[in-house]
Input
Amino acid sequence: MTSTFLPDQRTGRDTDPPPPAARASRGRARRRAVNWLTAVGFQLPALVLFIGLVLLPMLFALYAGFFRWGGFGMPSDYIGGDNFTRLFEDPVFLGDLWRCLVLVVLSLALQLPFALAMAVLLNQKLRGRAVYRMLFFAPYVLSEAITGVLFSMVFAPDDGLADNALGAVGLDGLGGEWFADPSWVMATLFLVMTWKYFGFHMMLYLAGLQSIPRELTEAALIDGAGPWQRFRNVTLPLLAPTLRISVFLSVIGAIQLFDLVWVVTQGGPDHHSETMAVTMFQYGFKRYQVGYASAISVVMFGICLVFALAYQRFVLRRDLEGATTTMRGGGA
Amino acid sequence: MGDPGLSRRGFLAATAAAGVGMTALSGCGGDSDGGSSDGTTTIEWWNISTTEPAKSVWASLAKKFEAQNPKVKIKIVQLENEAYKSKMTALIASGKLPDIFHTWGGGVLKQQVDAGLVEDLTDRTKDFADGLLPVTKEPYLLDEKVYGIPFDMGMIGFWYNKALFKKAGISAPPTTWDGFLDAVRKLKAENITPLALAGKEKWPGMYYWAYLAMRTAGADALQKAADDKDFTSDEFVQAGQHLQDLVDLQPFQKGFLGAAYSTPTGQAAAVGNGKAAMELMGQWAPVVEADAGKGLGDDLGFFAFPAVEGGKGAITEVFGGGGGHALRRDAPQAAVDFLKFFASETTDKVLVEETGTLPVVPAAESAIKDPNIKAVQAQLKAATGFQLYLDQAYAPAVGQEVNDSVAALIAGSKSPEQVTQSITKTAKEEQ
Output
């Protein structure tokens, strides 16, 4: 879903070659029609799949959100907006929204700066740099389910690696119940999420850092800028487009978080790690209240959509404008 | 792109690709029925026997059936308990179930029946179903029609470690709730974890509340409450208070709120490895304890859920359920033949001897060797009242709300009154 909102879609048109001036305009029109048909032909399969497997189910979920529906046959018991009012009175769902916000804030305040620091560090000349990069990126390749099983063992109270390791260095007092403790479960989950995802953001930043021309840093160095000034006034502004995309992916990921939570805690203990997607699954697949679950999914989609549009409009605009200018300029 | 011919070829290729895409898409809706041209029937059998030894025993039984019926192929699909329930939800929405599928009977089966997806077996299985033990058939009887054939029957009770009880100076298993709380205190005094509980999965916690509700309000009260959509009676509140008395003693293992049931760090393993003295679990407990942990062997004992002083229920009333198989609507005759094969005396003896299930065929009772399973069987046969597992007996939303609310009570975020109110609210929302 996230890729839908990425700006690179807009660049699809610049494959049109500059027409040779000698050709007659009739030939040009014919060729344009053929090109158009080709484009349609290539897009049709994807379009059919997108409409059938994405758009229609989404519209159906919106429709089902207005019914009391157990998932059997077609929805028939129309209840208007009741599912939605119930949703915003449900302490679990309100808790989901709060936890989502907490995750977003933690990701932006801790996870991404950490990833940036690692990227800057690994952009230096460093012995075994490639090995570090690979190591930090490896967790991202693991599936969320495997990560979940792995860390439920690591953080098993008493017997797990975490408690044993802490005990071995004399910090037994810091060992706890981790995922089993209502007040620590989110912090522990965030730790695991950071372990898994910071490598991905680090890679993005590394790619961004490498596209910054060396001359600019050198010029700043000659002008007498210290390391912090070089980072603050040269690196950071030039890395901004990458940062903006990374923030976007991180927020959308936090809103849709499901797999990891489901495998590790199923939203427990006592709903303290439940996310919107987990609540939706509980109602849709455990309680067979598919209408209500649809309402949750619609709200989730709404939040994603509003965020994505607002972000594109207000934050990504500069990056997108760059892309459109290039197109207007005829590939200059 | 400059050459028009290339464009045209490109366009043709694209059209062809689109055509393939469409075909593939329409193929998704296609029906794949078991029958094939050479006369063999393939039947799909979905079960939840993912742990050993049942897993391999069942596979070999399927082979045996195939050998006896050369024209039938059996495709086994095995899923873990919770995964199975989720998968079935998706299948139900699609309107097509596997030929033979696991069922616990009760409210969930009724929903599937009401949706017109389950075969009425009353006439098709009459020749062999009449001979099965009556109590084992209860969960699958809906409106006096047979919708499932049992292969197992059991009940929930306390499984305890005799050695740890001895160490704590408990001479005999408790028969009253006060006696039970005393036993918990004695175990705690010896630094033994009295109870193991899988808090993450919620259903094992529900057993406590359900049994306490049966003991305070009587065996029929839970079904009646569901029918009346009212769980707010004083007896149900008392049940919650009794459970709270237990929770206040902090009897569960460290980190129980995050523990699963059958994993190596879960509830069954804690008992099987001798780290906790008791668990409240069904007749399958010894098998899972030995699979997830080491198992207790002769040190393992079973006792019935204690009676509550002044309650309307008796200690002989059991909370339990079984396992059975139902067929999808219009399932082939081969599927019925398989049910008959699976409920035969020969098969049942194999199941009882090798997988620790309880007999559904009277003649298979002699095959029980394990003294604990004998104890369970004796309690079941002498039962004066019966209540099916709540998450199966009730509509799914109500069953889940019971699990959820009781989990909240155990975690300390809901009061006994709030538990009864939440369940009532959910029951009223379901039409």
Chain A touches chain B through 49 residues (CB under 8 Å). Residues 82-328 of chain A form a domain with the MetI-like fold fold (CATH 1.10.3720.10).
